Amino acid sequence: MTPFESPVLVTRPNLPPLEDVVAGLAEIWDNRWLTNRGPMLERFEHRLAEFLRIDDVAVFTNGTLALELGLQALGLTGEVITTPFTFVSSVNALVRAGLTPVFADIEPAHLTLDPAHVEALITPRTCAILTVHVFGHPCRVEQLAAIAARHGLLLIHDAAHAFGVTINGESIAGFGDLSMFSFHATKPFHALEGGALTFRRPDMKRSVVTLANHGLDAEGDVVDPGTNAKMTEVQALIGLLMLQRLPAIIAHGRAIEAIYRERLAPVPGLDMLALPDAGVMPNHAFAPVLIDPDVAGLTRDDLHSALLRYNIVARKYFYPAICDMTAFRHLRGGDPLWRARDVAGRILTLPLYATLPLADVHRICDIIVAICAGRGN
Ligand code: T4K
After folding, report:
1. Pick the residue with more confidence: 331 or 114?
2. What is the DSSP letter of 194?
3. How far is the CA of 61 from the centre of ligand 1 (A)?
4. To test ligand 1's pocket by mutation, which of 59, 184, 231, 238 has the most ligand atoms within 8 angstroms of CB?
5. How far is the CA of 182 from the centre of ligand 1 (A)?
6. 128 C-alpha to center of ligand 1: Å?
7. What's the pLDDT score for residue 1?
8. pLDDT tens digits, 361-375
């Protein structure tokens, strides 16, 4: 088996046709309005709210700042129970908003927060739960909402991976007190960089928009110090153009995932995550696979290195678990977080993106099958 001629990356940004971008840029040039909530941004927020079928949405320069400002606007203090199996941004945002993360373990099917572990960690210092719909799989929204309600906590969703996901026909943006989406270039739906918040309380929009503009109110006064987290007009333009493309991008992701599932199912010790729960329409944004070294006869790191020799750049999303990162080791966890640590050591995310040909996915599968059978090196 021959290696790919050029690297096959875990993801590549999808791009709108250049002529559409140029036409949109011409409009921005004519307006001479580049940032600070211009007309393109207003249109983008409006279309997003329509797409998500919710009342309102606020966009920002990236998802991390969106989450930080959402936490600040909610006026939270104390401890927030969250998952150690995520991209570090979720936990960075908590710390930078002056909150103390407390890690709970994850459930086995979709690697999201385990509600039982969450409830066991609640103390009088707990103010909120921050879940992550990791790899786009919704966390246990109903169970966690019930726990939050029972204990008077806010429920915040890091939905960075979950744009376009629905549960029983309802957009995932409508769950919890606050949801954050990332529109980073590596996401199926993006705005070069970008992020958004959706919220239950309608007055939240004003608060977060003010915080994103340094905290300045209409009179030029600052009550709550903010930062600069404003989305530019060019970002909003790309977002608008990408929104039209999302259904086709999701459809291609679905086709890729179907091939991985079918072709890798017979490989001993290689497991894709469970299929989505009933009623969930996923966005097929990631293709994570778990390697059981005792059954597969090789470790995740062995497979990762072997794939690199074939020019396939799979990624260890998300390793190490956040609780094992230097900055966060001192934080309290209620238990050994053994599942999160185990998963972080065994997971590998395979290439999946809209311009990846299905023939290449088959070739990646041929290579994985051969490596696992001891025929690749
Ligand atoms: N919460 C969660 C759960 C998240 O996963 C994230 C972001 C956030 C919050 C925060 O949202 P943002 O503040 O980012 O809006 C990438 C992304 O930078 C990050 O947005 C994303 N999660 C994370 C899962 O992945 P890296 O460090 O892995 O990116 P990088 O540069 O290694 O790129 C990944 C692959 O994409 C590479 O193979 C190269 C390729 N690539 C990348 C870029 C940027 C391209 O081909 N072209 C490009 O322009 O973090």
Report:
1. 114
2. -
3. 14
4. 184
5. 10
6. 26
7. 85
8. 999 999 999 999 987
